[in-house]
Amino acid sequence: MTEAFDPVRVAAENLRLPLNPTRNVIEMLQNDYTVAFITRYRAERTNGMNENQIRSIENQFKRLSSVLAKQENIIKTLTKDKKLTPELERSIRHARTLADVEELYAPYKKGAKTSLAERARQLGIEPLARLVLDRQKSVDMKSQVDGSRKGLESVKAVETALKNIIADIISKDAATRERLKRLAERSVMLESSARSSSKEEKEEFDRKYQDYFRFSSPFRFLKAHQILALNRGEQQKVLSVKLVLPKLDETAHLDWAKRKWIRHDAAAEIFALIEKSLLDAHSRLMIPKVLRELRRDATESAEREGVAVFIENLKRVLLTPPVRGATVLGIDPGYRHGCKVAAVDSTGRILFTTVLHLLLIPKRRAKEELRAIIDEQRCKLLAIGNGKGSRETQEIVSDVIRSKSLWHREVSYCIVDESGASLYSVSPIAQEEMPDLEPNLRSAVSIARRLQDPLAELVKIDPKHLGIGMYQHDMPKKMLDDALAGVIEDAVSLVGVDLNACSVPLLRHVAGMGPTRAKAVVDYREKNGAFVNRSQLRKVKGIGAKTFEQCAGFVRISQASVPLPPPPPPPPSPPRLIKDDDDDDDDDDDFVPQRAAGKSRKRKAGAAAKVSTESKRRKKNDDLPEPFDATNIHPESYEAARKLLELVGATVDQLGQEVLRQKLGRLSLRNVADDLKIGVPTLELIVDAFRRPVRDLRDDFNEPIFRKSVLSMADLRRGAILTGRVTNVVSFGVFVDVGVETSGLVHVSSLRGAQLHYGDQVRVEVDKVELDRKRIGLLLA
């Protein structure tokens, strides 16, 4: 019996990762540890793998485990039905995808249409077919003729049945199939053409698919975006797509197959029979299957690449640096329904909302109305949505800024991607947050807040509606949803959340939380006041030991948000003295302290006091601030962190100061880790927190670009050098916003190996401008 494969080992081999750390990752995932927690706080067990590697392991293991489970179920079913042969079992166990397993099982399913080969086998002539292949001598087919049985009624029918069985044997030969597949991978051509459609459809599809109406390419050179576009065009019945194996390659393969399957000394009639069987296996069974596999594998690879591009863009979007400390005026441009305007203070609190018909009234009046609001609300920054009317709105804003008549000289504006804002404005989250505002005004508030804190605002919106990625709506829903949930959790956990300021939509994405626990935490905070330390999370219903372990390192307690401790109680008053009524002459004993209770009461309280001392001490500490709660040090490492401070002769008050950085720079981390009985990765995390105790990883990325004037495509000239911001990364290049009405494309061939990400600021050179097609070609400057 062929042994089942080990999914852990195969996953490690496929990903080229060491076996033991891979096994550790899978073990922790099966114990409900989150990827974010494993990445940051269990680096010793993973050899320092990053979150992408861990998610790849998770996906590989899930896929391989499902294949293994499917294999076992099918083998059990086939054994029960007495249809399992050693050859079939080997083929099933050799399969590494669900599609391959299903294809092998399909002919044996109950109710499945019986194949030609299977029907021939049911006639009982398979031994003769194998004898033909083995000996390749003349056989007596007349002896197999049986006029009473369909399929054996003549010599011709017997020959056909033998041909079907031999073709099936050849088509399932691993060496023959593998050689044909390798050949096809190298030489198959893809051809696509336009299908007939109505005039209206043609006008619409011309814009989307005109590059593929007469398209031909070696299949192996196709890019992921081309495969996804061709698939979509075929599904929409706009394109006809086919794979073609060149005749020369096909002939060469058939010549090789003849040499493999037909002996030089074969009898003439046997030579002809096997040759016919081989041609039938090639054209009817092998070529269609190989081409289906090629398209399926290419589609799956393109989908994985598309998901990878999407989540990388999403992560960069979520990690866009916040713009702190300023009142922002959000503007959602519009024509007939006006421009929706909302002013929010530095904390995101709504100060003012209105609707201005800036694009329908005289420009002079529009500028005066806008200037009045900017001055009245003391706005330094304007966030303008990039929807319809954005360019005209920018022109008005730019004129107001250039007039230098505003309350502040440094007023500027920024273009904010408003994708998903309209959907958010009618969502339950928006209705709960802004019950008194109309949906159109909520979108203006969202645009302003997106500039202030993109992470906190964008987690409220389905990422598929954020206008990033490549063909994300064509991706398998579960694969995409799982990937998006993971990247949002990674981003939120990387940044961390302030436990006393976060909202439910943000907190729910912290590792180990989820919507129910997040709501319980916020409800507890509203009922009991601000959290003083992380340990108080344990008091929230639903936060058990496992959840606390997972989430504690990713929540912060900002010392500024912790209420001041109550003043210390006044010192106890001195004991009251009473007159001693005895008659001795010792005046020193005339006054003695008054006992509050007799000896029996004192003895009774003593035992209870001893029992409750420890619990009181714990309760007292639970109400005290913990300085390490403002860092990303996990509570399980607090003791090690205190020992490290003691080792270098520092105090908690010196966190982040140069004197502590110098002391830490002189340490041998390996030796210190051994002394503290912790791993080097954990020690490195503690040391980094000591150097930068309050760190926002988003500060390492480029801030949004603020502008005071406006350009249009008509202003662009070839050779002009501009500064722009990457707004999307796809397999064929990157799109860059240079401040005009459409983003320009830097084609992958022009990147010269540069690795660009969403949000990066780049200097680009204008290469070409196509006003009619609204296309801008850019080069890296």
Structure notes:
This protein is α+β, with helices and mostly antiparallel strands and 781 residues long. Among the domains are: 324-452, 2-Layer Sandwich (Nucleotidyltransferase, domain 5), CATH 3.30.420.140; 633-694; 713-780, OB fold (Dihydrolipoamide Acetyltransferase, E2P), CATH 2.40.50. 49% of the residues lie in helices and 12% in strands. The protein contains 30 helices and 17 strands. A 5-stranded mixed sheet has the order 6-5-4-7-8, with helices on both faces. Strands 13-14-15-17-16 form a 5-stranded mixed barrel. A 3-stranded antiparallel sheet has the order 2-1-3, with helices on one face. Helix 1 (7-15) crosses helix 5 (51-80), helix 14 (247-261) crosses helix 15 and helix 16 (363-377) crosses helix 17 (390-402). The longest helix has 51 residues, at 268-318. It is globular. Residues 577-605 and 607-615 have low confidence and may be disordered.
Brief summary of the model shown:
With 781 residues, the protein is an alpha+beta fold. It is built from 30 helices and 17 strands.
Output the CATH homologous superfamily of the domain at 324-452: YqgF/RNase H-like domain
Radius of gyration: 37 Å
Class inferred from helices and paired strands: alpha+beta
Counting DSSP H or I runs of 4 or more residues, the number of helices is: 30
- Strand proportion, as a percent range, falls in 5-15%
Proper CATH architecture of the domain at 324-452:
2-Layer Sandwich
**How many distinct beta strands?**
17
The geometry reads as globular
Low-confidence stretches: 577-605, 607-615
> In CATH's first tier, which class of the domain at 324-452 applies?
Alpha Beta
First-to-last CA distance: 63 Å
Characterize the biggest β-sheet: 5 strands, mixed
**What's the rounded overall pLDDT mean?**
84
* Order of the strands making up the biggest sheet: 6-5-4-7-8
Fraction of helical residues: 40-55%
CATH names the topology of the domain at 324-452 as Nucleotidyltransferase, domain 5
